Amino acid sequence: MHLHSYQAKQLLRNYGISTLRFGVAKTLEELKLLMRSLDLRSVEMELTGKDREKVAAQTRDEAMFLAKKWVENEEKSALFSLVSIQEKMDASPKRQLSLSIDYEKALRKAVFTTPQHAYTWSYYPSSLEKEQIALPEEEKMFIPIVWQLLSFYEEKDGIDLQAEIVLKKGMPFVQDITLFIDERALFRNEELAVFYDPYRYTLQEKIAEQFDIDYTSFSGNIGCMVSGRGLGYALMDSIEAAGGKLSCCINVDKGASKDLLHTGWQVMLSDSSMEKALFYLITERIDCRVLAKDLVDMLKITKVDLPIFVRMEGNYVKDGNLLLEEAGIQTVSSFAESVKKVTKKGGSSVD
Questions:
Q1: How many structural domains is the chain composed of?
Q2: Which of 25, 162, 200, 310 could form a Cys-Cys staple with 178, CB 3.0–4.6 A?
Q3: What's the CATH number where 26 sits?
Q4: Are residues 274 and 321 in the same domain?
């Protein structure tokens, strides 16, 4: 279950974690009053309902103009029930904190990303201590809010979290947050069940749920299948920074079996906005020769005319890449190359 950004921010505020200003409006008049009361200028707005759409505005007038266009569009107004807005500080260098679970080792994994570096550390929940936050001296001012987010993460249980952190007047604030709640863990977090919103899910997400597939829809044109939700978040941010945007992302961190690959790919293909695809599968458990054969067989069956790129890492990766390349599937060797290839205009398809 994915929460709306404003719902996730409210949870953080209830926990005492500082966030930038945000609010929700159901009408244009409410939106105008909300922006005045919060004294918001540069904002990000999200339409929420049977669909969702985001847009950034640099002034109040621009925000009202865009909102009015949404409301006056009969097709769009029938799909949306409210507008959420949040303060944006585009001039401030952003930090990203991703928190996820390594199911294989029963470890928590934290990744703190700055404009220059990514700092990673793992820990067992029972041994969590503030001193474990391994950040350099120039990033020390972020340790208090990182510690708060780690504590929140452990208390709620059964969630994955990615927070965008900025400095405002020298103090760290959460600017945006993505929060995923494992619905199977709601019995341990009953207070989170009130946030369930059936309109939050696209048709593809509802179909994927029936097959126990971790699938998230977005509004871009790049489809991704990844071996870890944290990896998916990192790819999404890097792709957006390079000028691209995801249409969907499937997480197969519990095993890239042949059946899961085929079913997940069929769900991805049902999204007509997907124009290119990236498979980014990294795990010690993978025999890349087997994975490559499964991918080749799958793509031969579907015969899609899309640019497709594959990054694998595991056992026999060279042999696996050779099988893919012989089938006319482009392979990539690094995170940076993956982002560059998938955001480049054009591309090639499977032979």
A1: 3
A2: 162
A3: 3.30.1490.20
A4: yes
Q: What is the pLDDT of residues 103-159, one digit of tens each?
A: 666 678 888 988 888 888 888 877 778 877 878 888 999 999 999 999 888 887 667
Instruction: Report if residue 349 sits inside a domain.
Output: no
Buried b (16+ CB within 10 A) or exposed e, 255-290: ebeeebbebbbebbbebeebebbbbbbbbeebebbb
Mean pLDDT by 10 residues, the chain (351 residues): 79 92 82 78 64 66 76 57 73 82 72 86 79 85 93 79 89 87 63 62 70 78 86 84 88 74 86 90 81 90 88 90 93 91 68 43
Q: For tokens 């990615």, name the residue.
A: 162
User: Per-residue b/e over 113-150, b at no fewer than 16 CB within 10 Å?
Assistant: bbeeeebeeebeeeeeeeeebebeeebeebbebbbbbb
| Beta strand pairing call for 222-226 and 171-181 | unpaired
The answer to whether residue 351 sits within a structural domain is no
Residues 249, 199: contact at Cβ < 8 Å? no
Looking from the CA of 143 toward its CB, the CA atoms found within 13 Å total 13
* CA–CA dist 324, 333 (Å, integer): 13
pTM: 0.60
Domain extent for 46: 21-87
Say whether both 165 and 212 belong to one domain.
no
| E-assigned strand segments in the chain | 22-25, 43-49, 52-57, 80-87, 95-102, 107-113, 118-123, 159-168, 171-181, 214-217, 222-226, 246-251, 276-287, 308-315, 330-331
